[in-house]
Structures are given as structure tokens and as C-alpha cells.
């Protein structure tokens, strides 16, 4: 009798570079980096295959760099992509310190620093239990790391993309301004696009919609929350599907 190999659940986690910045609003706060790495390790130990995309907004964004006209948007975007690689390498170190096996794959070739993105290789890493961090976004200017994360999630056939944020999910209005703001537990892709929900850009949502990839929005800064929402589907979160 042939023994069927049990497939592990595979998810892709996206968080913004800003999440790493801490109160200073810039760069990498090492305590936050350590906290996030520990949360990811705890999740990994729930028998999951994990891909990660981290943004670069804590260092530079193309749109911001191009303000004033000194730096062209395309160059600014490449600077932003390089910023994501800096964050990816930092996260790799933090995860490896916790004993995990990690590979960074970049959408633009920087072979002295990390592997280049090769789809089949990424899959192999995941199957071998390695965490794969996808750096440099899509490798193309005029995109965001939300779109890159959605693209990579689809490519690696993740069952869902987790947009890990500082808030519990998507609200009907800004919860920082309106105390009566309601958390929306389920939102259709069309509604998310219509409302231009802030947690994910429209290009990313449209790509997720075209490929039936559910987007789970949750808070990454509550200890144990990633496990609660991803593994046990309990607690507060929003699902866009
Ligand atoms: N970027 C890009 N192409 C991509 C992904 C990112 O040009 O496929 C650039 C873009 O300038 C972006 C920056 O990298 O502003 C950092 O990414 P993002 O703003 O998505 O980071 P986050 O807001 O998640 O920290």
C-alpha cells in the first residue's frame, strides 16, 4: 500500500517595513525584529510551511524618494526594493538565531547577498522545511510589496496570504479616529476594491481575486495571535475572499 504524504499547510505572511521601525519611525528596531521572529518561529512550529514578504517603508519608498523631482520614480522604486532586501536579511538573521533554516530570495539579482528568486527552488526550500523570505518585491518598479506578496503567494500555491498589521483587521471606518468603528470579519474582493481598503492596495487585491487567493488581515503584535488566527481561526481578523 502506498503511504500518502501528508501535505503541510503553506501560507505567505506579508508585513510592512514600517512594522520593523518601532517608535523612531525609521530603520530596524532590534527588539521588534526579535519579537516578530519569535512569533514566526512559534507559528512555524505548528507544522506550517512559511513564505514571507517584508516591505521596505521603514527605509525608503519610491514615491517618497521621487517627491521634489531630484530622484526619478524608477530609481526610487529600485531603492525601495533594495530596502526590502535589507529587511529580509535582518529577518533571516533573527530567525536563524532562533534555530530556523531560512533562505532569502531576491527579485533582483544580488548574488553576493542572497539567492535570486527561482520558483522551483523556493518550493524545494519550503518542502524541506525552510522559511523563504522573498526580497526586492516583484523586481519591477511601480509595484508594491503587497502585490509582490500576492504574486509570490500564488506562485508558491499558498492557501492564503496573511497581511500582518498593527490592527485587528479591516474596519468600516478608521478605528483610531472613531471608537465605534466595526471590524469587518468577511469582505468580498469586490467590496474591498470598491472601498479601497487601506491595508492592501488595489493591484494586490485584484490579483488575489483573479486567483481566488484569500487574504487574512490580522494583528501581528499581540503575542500568539498569528497562531490563533491562522491555525485555530479564532480571535479577531478579517478575511477578504
Ligand atoms: N517596490 C517596487 N516594486 C515592487 C515592490 C516594491 O518598486 O515590486 C518599491 C516601491 O518603491 C515601494 C518600496 O519598494 O514603495 C517599498 O515597498 P512597500 O512600499 O510596499 O513597503 P511597505 O509599505 O510594505 O513597508
Summarize the entry for a quick read.
Residues 22-27 are annotated as: Involved in allosteric activation by GTP. The chain has 241 residues and is α/β, with parallel strands linked by helices.
Ordered list of secondary-structure elements with their pairings:
Blueprint: E1 9-15, H1 18-21, H2 30-44, E2 48-54, H3 62-66, H4 73-97, E3 102-106, E4 115-116, H5 119-127, E5 131-135, H6 145-155, E6 160-165, E7 170-171, E8 183-184, E9 186-187, H7 189-195, H8 202-210, E10 215-219, H9 225-231, E11 238-240
Helix pairs in contact: 2-4, 2-9, 6-8, 7-8
Bound molecules: uridine-5'-diphosphate.
Uridine-5'-diphosphate is lined by residues 16-18, 55-57, 61-62, 76-77, 80-81, 83-84, 137-138, 140-141, 143-146, 148.
Using brief descriptors, characterize the structure shown:
241 residues; alpha/beta; Carbamate kinase; nine-stranded mixed sheet; two-stranded antiparallel ribbon; 11 strands; binds uridine-5'-diphosphate
Amino acid at each position: 500500500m502506498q503511504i500518502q504524504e501528508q501535505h503541510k499547510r503553506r501560507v505567505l505572511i506579508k508585513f510592512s517595513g514600517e512594522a520593523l521601525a518601532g517608535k523612531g519611525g525609521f530603520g530596524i528596531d532590534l527588539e521588534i525584529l526579535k519579537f516578530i521572529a519569535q512569533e514566526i518561529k512559534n507559528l512555524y512550529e505548528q507544522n506550517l510551511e512559511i513564505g514571507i514578504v517584508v516591505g521596505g517603508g521603514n527605509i525608503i519608498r519610491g514615491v517618497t524618494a521621487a517627491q521634489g523631482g531630484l530622484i526619478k520614480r524608477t530609481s526610487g522604486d529600485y531603492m525601495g526594493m533594495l530596502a526590502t532586501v535589507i529587511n529580509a536579511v535582518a529577518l533571516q538573521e533573527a530567525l536563524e538565531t532562533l534555530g530556523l533554516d531560512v533562505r532569502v530570495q531576491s527579485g533582483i539579482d544580488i548574488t553576493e547577498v542572497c539567492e535570486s528568486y527561482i520558483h522551483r527552488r523556493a518550493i524545494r526550500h519550503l518542502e524541506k522545511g525552510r522559511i523563504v523570505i522573498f526580497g526586492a518585491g516583484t523586481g519591477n518598479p511601480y509595484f508594491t510589496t503587497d502585490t509582490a506578496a500576492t504574486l509570490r503567494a500564488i506562485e508558491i500555491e499558498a492557501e492564503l496570504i496573511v497581511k500582518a498589521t498593527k490592527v485587528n483587521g479591516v474596519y468600516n471606518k478608521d478605528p483610531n479616529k472613531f471608537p465605534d468603528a466595526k471590524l469587518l470579519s468577511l469582505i468580498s474582493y469586490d467590496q474591498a476594491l470598491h472601498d479601497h481598503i487601506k491595508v492592501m492596495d488595489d493591484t494586490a487585491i485584484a490579483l488575489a481575486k483573479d486567483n481566488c487567493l484569500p487574504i487574512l488581515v490580522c494583528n501581528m503584535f499581540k503575542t500568539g495571535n498569528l497562531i490563533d488566527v491562522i491555525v485555530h481561526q479564532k480571535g479577531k481578523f478579517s478575511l477578504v475572499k
